[in-house]
């Protein structure tokens, strides 16, 4: 059974940092695209960052939403089946539930409906 479990959310002041982690189990996700989305109250789920396998060993390519470039960093550990999202220079508008997702694809995928597996989400609250 496939499971994605997020952790690392919390309350932080504006300008602060958090590291979100997603642990995947149930299969090997090395060749999967894995990404992070977020959803704020009253808003649609939006793309944050994603990674895809390059096809060579443990090299992955990353892609980011424009609003997070330079502040957030996505990384993967294929040996541990984890994907992390480092959040820096947080702003109040980053407040949302952050979700980890996986898709059986080697493409860069920015649309939430193309992801097959989802975690339960972790709350990030940034106070101004």
What does this structure look like?
The chain has 128 residues and is mainly β. It has no helices and eleven strands. It has strands at 3-7, 10-13, 18-25, 33-39, 46-53, 60-64, 72-77, 82-87, 96-103, 117-118, 122-127. Strands 2, 4, 5, 6, 9, 10 and 11 form a seven-stranded mixed β-sheet that branches. Strands 1-3-8-7 form a four-stranded antiparallel β-sheet, with no helix packed on it. The protein starts with a strand and ends with a strand.
Radius of gyration: 14 Å
- Give the end-to-end Cα distance, rounded to a whole number of Å: 40 Å
Q: Uncertain segments of ≥5 residues (pLDDT<50)?
A: none
> What sequence of helices (H) and strands (E) makes up the elements?
EEEEEEEEEEE
For the biggest sheet, the summary is:
7 strands, mixed
Q: What does the average pLDDT come to?
A: 95
Oligomer: single chain
- Determine the number of helices (DSSP H or I, runs of at least 4 residues): 0
Task: Characterize the overall form.
Answer: globular
What is the β-strand count? 11
Helical residues, percent: under 10%
Classification by helices and strands: mainly beta
Strand coverage percent: over 45%
Map the helices and strands.
Layout: E1 3-7, E2 10-13, E3 18-25, E4 33-39, E5 46-53, E6 60-64, E7 72-77, E8 82-87, E9 96-103, E10 117-118, E11 122-127
Parallel strand pairs: 2-11
Antiparallel strand pairs: 1-3, 3-8, 4-5, 4-9, 5-6, 7-8, 9-10, 9-11
Compact overview of the structure:
The protein has strands spanning 3-7, 10-13, 18-25, 33-39, 46-53, 60-64, 72-77, 82-87, 96-103, 117-118, 122-127. The chain has 128 residues and is mainly beta.
């Amino acid at each position: 059974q496939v499971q994605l479990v997020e952790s690392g959310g919390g309350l932080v002041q504006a300008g602060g940092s958090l590291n979100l982690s997603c642990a995947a189990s149930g299969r090997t996700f090395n060749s999967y695209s894995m990404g992070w989305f977020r959803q704020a109250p009253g808003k649609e789920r939006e793309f944050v960052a994603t990674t895809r396998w390059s096809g060579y060993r443990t090299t992955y390519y990353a892609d980011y939403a424009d609003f997070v470039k330079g502040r957030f960093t996505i990384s993967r550990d294929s040996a541990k089946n984890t994907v992390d999202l480092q959040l820096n220079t947080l702003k109040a508008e980053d407040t949302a539930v952050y979700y980890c997702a996986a898709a059986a694809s080697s493409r860069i995928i920015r649309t939430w409906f193309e992801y097959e597996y989802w975690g339960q989400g972790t709350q990030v609250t940034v106070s101004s």
